[in-house]
Design a protein that fits this description.
434 Repressor (Amino-terminal Domain); 5 helices; mainly alpha
């Protein structure tokens, strides 16, 4: 059996622990979101209080109630109350509807 090579061949040699390179892991959007949630850094943008005041001035100048404005915009009356008080979350589509109503 002189034609056979009996030298050991290592297919997947184990690397020494000292030579292992440290990898920097990039955080995914989900991981960042979870970290922000844990740290209490998540918050929604609110509608501008000046916008609510201008809506209220318009409504009073026209002699309308919050319910009347809500019916014209086809939204709940509590949304108009929240916009005027500055507690409503930002909603660009609703702001556009209100601006169009005020410019008529």
């Amino acid at each position: 059996m002189e034609h056979q090579d009996w030298n050991t061949l290592f297919v997947n040699p184990k690397k020494k622990k000292n030579n292992i390179e440290k990898k920097e892991y990039i955080k995914s959007k989900e991981q960042k979101m979870n970290e922000n949630e844990e740290n209490g850094k998540l918050s929604h943008k609110k509608m501008d209080s000046d916008f609510g005041k201008s809506l209220q001035k318009y409504r009073l100048s026209q002699g309308l109630t919050q319910k009347d404005i809500a019916q014209k915009l086809n939204i709940p009356a509590k949304d108009i109350n929240e916009i005027e008080s500055g507690k409503m979350k930002h909603n660009g589509q609703l702001m556009g509807k209100i601006k169009r109503l005020m410019n008529k």
